[in-house]
Amino acid sequence: MSGSVTSRERVRAAFAHQELDRVPAWLGASPQFIDLALRQLGLPDEESFRVCVGDDFRRVYARYAGPAEMAPSSDLQPGATSRTPFAVQRRGYGYGQPLHHPLADATLHEIHAYPWPDPAWMNVSGVRQDALQHGGRYAILGGEWSPFWHDAIDLLGMENLMLRMYDQPETVDALLAHIVDYYVEVSRRTFDAAAGAIDIFFIGNDFGTQVGPVMGEAMFRRYMLPHLKRLVDLGHDYGLVVLLHCCGGFAPLLPALIETGLDGLQALQPSCTGMDPAGLKAAYGSQITFMGCIDTQHVLIEGTPGYVREQTRRIVELIKPGGGYVASASHDYLLPETPVENVTAMFDAIREYGIY
Q1: pLDDT tens digits, residue range 209-227?
Q2: Right CATH number for 2-61+103-353 from 3.40.50.620, 3.90.180.10, 2.60.40.10, 3.20.20.210?
Q3: H helices within 42-126, ranges in order?
């Protein structure tokens, strides 16, 4: 049966909580890890690596085409490595940390008057062709990442943002509205341009820490949920599955997340407080699709290939019954400190033990 099933069909079945031929697999990896894997495995390009490990997904992006001074990587100040759409320059490993918080002292009027980016700066004309080049074989992820919570932290500073939630709620509401307005419009343009070629609206906001949520449920419902629902509703308006990347121990927020109509949660971290895979599957497995749960921190980075294989088997056999599971590492972005042989061992085990 597996030879006749496409990756796209396999993923659709998982999100429909159906068992098809096997559990789907997803590879999220940093460019640095991809380069390392290509060298070690002697493969020519990223696509060949994805085929090698059995990744059932591919991702497409809109491309920046706006003013040079606002581009993600041009005209940066010394030490900066990137610029967000909201003109915050960042530095450091991976996505890095903000060098400044331009709206830290802003009044409500100044937040409204901030030079917010124009959605037309993102060129969506190539997205459809980028998706169609895969011939309908894979599940296609698309739309803007939309990390509105992180952008708000960048613009105000985290402590300041938290205090304003209590002292100046109107400024937080205005800030989040402007940020999400931008992401909604860019994604709408993307979906208009690539209707039918994208399967999954993939967004990301980290609402958890190692030991619990970043805020209580009441504050989460007050500030985060309305904007998250805007994004979920947008995806559903276009017939898309909506998948949220969310790190950390956010289990107390799961009922609220499910209320938005969210279809899936990506990169669940079993080492975080409250994120036991068996408990999550039992409590919520019929309501939302889980993706991840193969521990990156302690298993993939620190383990041997044999240990990785055994832990992957354990997780896959635990969560796969009834569908609603996509197997992957518990981080959305494998980093180069992860041994390549451990990653290939994980995917080998997914193929072997993920069969229905």
Answers
A1: 999 999 999 999 999 999 9
A2: 3.20.20.210
A3: 46-53, 108-113
